[in-house]
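Protocol step 4 of 5: obtain the predicted structure for the target chain.
Materials: sequence only (see below). No template structures provided, no constraints applied. The aim of this step is simply to have a reference model before the mutagenesis design in step 5. Sequence pasted as it appears in the construct record:
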Amino acid sequence: MDSENTTLHGGADSERPSPATSVEVAANAGTLTEAAEFSRMKGVGETLNGRFVLEKCIGFGSMGTVYKAFDLRQLEGAAGKPYVAVKVFNTSLHSDPDLQHSMEREIQKLHALRHPNVLEVEALHLDDSLAYFTMEYVAGSSLNQILNASGFSGMPVQQVLPIVGGIVKALAYAQGQGCLHCDLKPANILLTPASHVKVMDFGLAQVLQQAKEKTELSVLDTSMLRGLTRAYVSAELLAGEPPDARDDIYALACITYQLLTGRHPFHDMLATQAREMRLEPIPPKQLSPQQWHGLRNALVLERQARTPDLMQFFSALRDMPRTPRPRVQGMGAPALAMVGMASIVALVAVQHYRATDAVAEAKAAFAEISGIGTRIVAKLVSVSGSATSTSAGPSGTAGVTATSSANPIAMVTAPALPEKIPAQPLALASVTPVLAGIPCSALAATVTDNTIDVKGFVSRGYGIAQLNTTLAKIPGVENMKLDVQQIGEKDCAVVQLFAPYWQKSRAAGASVRPRSGDTRMTEGDALVVDIKTPDHGTWVYADYYALDGGVIHLLPSLRARDNQAPPSYSATVGSAGNWIVSPPFGTEMVVLLTTPTPLFGNVRPEREGTPGYLAALETQLRQIESANGAERITVEFLQIQTQPKK
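Step 4 output (structure tokens):
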């Protein structure tokens, strides 16, 4: 699936009037020839050159789609490794001989790279207009899948170091062979079940980039090429400067930071944007100062100040934090006296503790500290030769009385703490039917103690104020947190169809967001969205529901027929400038829908009426739900606000 090469065309588009919609479709010359080439794209179950049987989609990106394939020739030769990985390019090499020759030379260079941490490349092949190359097949997961897994929030340093070490070995070896990567990203790094690292796609992005700069005939586009990887590209490469080893170091540092924290160091921003805003990454809590210093130097946004050497970077990262040993030997009476006094001070503090929200915690803390304090004071007195006695305090708990003038310690007793009358418990079971009864809405709630947290969408006719009033009437609700957007009446049918799937699939990790981060768009802006697939393999559909009552299919489309995706994969739709904001202006909806099996046998027309499309969708979704379960269908909504130029 190549979501970057998505332009909606039709043979008769130039002859018919364009309907009133807030997104215009950008059209280019040569559409029919290019569309004919893309119509011959092959998928799972088909065979390339009568030899490679495509068995499973295992990855996709801005350059092409990767499949696990069965090599029939290896089977005939009784070879021990009949499987290969096949990367099918999203563009034809026939239309660009220079690009074909450049790619052949690059594949030959990659074929010569033989290292345990570099994925072996075999050869470039052509099947009619289709270009692909074969690689060794390695079972496992890409780092992209690991980083985007639901709930991932980082790894311990001890787990990160071997992964980074494998990447460093691969990059260092390739550099020694005169080869830079220039497109290092989590999707290009594989981790086997035995945690062995394999790096792929050395130098290919630069070949395609240079081909685009030399010719306007190539269907590749600079923004398309970088669509999935821009967050890992150095500011210098973004500016078009010649590649340098420090560009790979920057990408590796970003990946390392993400492995440690689960977050990109600059919030997925371009390096140029982060530099302009003077952003500073937050130190990962598990790194020592020395380790952070080494990682921070590799994240410097200016190439000249960045760590210049891979081994220098990794050596700094391997500087493990030292855990100080507790010093317990030789603790005499003065030291014990300090500990004893600290315990007594803690007891006095508990006596004044009156926060009713922590009554249970205070009692438990007092009981623990009281026992420790009693033992330490007894030790103090025995050391000084004095005696102590214990007595019951006013509340019935043991107090400590000092009987020696050498140890003037006042009696400390536990306070009589008031009991809190518990509020009526709030149950999610009492919230769900209330939300289900709200018309034209997609709402989901979580409950913590007596606080309800509600997210989703509700119609403007119902309103946030009425929603607040309705929720406040639920028994046990003391506090509310609302993260709810209002939708127009025109989107009610869309939201009502998808709401049950949205509610059940929220934990699957799918998302759709504007590339710019801003949901407000101005006339002339390109509609570009980042999507992330759920934590299981899916077919992906992205649709734009316009103000005129029609729907524009962003994915799949005539130019991007392959919409099959592996688990937890990220992609960008529209970065080639295919959809431009135009009148009328207002609030509109983008819906990301994923299903375990394909919805339709053919690519639907670029535009169609919303009611007819929703009716067809409902029929298909009910069938898929019956066969696979509703939880295998995921839905995410994105509302955008369009406005005219000032």
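Step 4 remarks: Residues 2-21, 25-40, 212-228, 321-422 have pLDDT under 50 and may be disordered. The domain at 141-317 is CATH 1.10.510.10 (Transferase(Phosphotransferase); domain 1).
Proceed to step 5.
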